[in-house]
């Protein structure tokens, strides 16, 4: 099957026929992973999104972080401090 790459906003895109998606078990709004292998574009259904717990997010946290003040310099425009 041949399709044409077309302008889509500031990007380019292709349209994938519905029958093609159905044969692959995909549908509109499914999340996919896009990859490149040599000179081929590979599109595959993304693995299920894993919900992170707070424990997952902070598992590598070593409690050594200390917040610091940062000097952004003097106002440059019409900022109000």
Summarize the structure.
The chain is an alpha+beta fold.
Q: Can you walk me through this structure?
A:
This protein has helices spanning 18-23, 54-57; strands at residues 6-8, 11-13, 32-37, 40-45. The chain starts with 5 loop residues before the first strand and ends in a 24-residue tail after the last helix. The chain is built from two helices and four strands. The radius of gyration is 23 Å and the shape is extended. Strands 1-2 form a two-stranded antiparallel sheet. It is of the alpha+beta class and 81 residues long.
How would you describe this structure in keywords?
single chain, 81 residues, alpha+beta, two-stranded antiparallel ribbon, 2 helices, extended
């Amino acid at each position: 099957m041949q399709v044409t790459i077309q302008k889509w906003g500031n990007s380019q895109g292709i349209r994938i026929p519905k029958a093609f998606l159905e044969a692959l078990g995909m549908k509109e709004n499914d999340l996919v992973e896009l990859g490149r292998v040599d000179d081929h574009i590979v599109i595959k259904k993304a693995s299920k999104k894993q919900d992170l717990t707070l424990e997952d997010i902070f598992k590598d946290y070593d409690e050594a972080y200390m917040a610091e003040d940062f000097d952004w310099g003097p106002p440059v425009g019409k900022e109000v401090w």
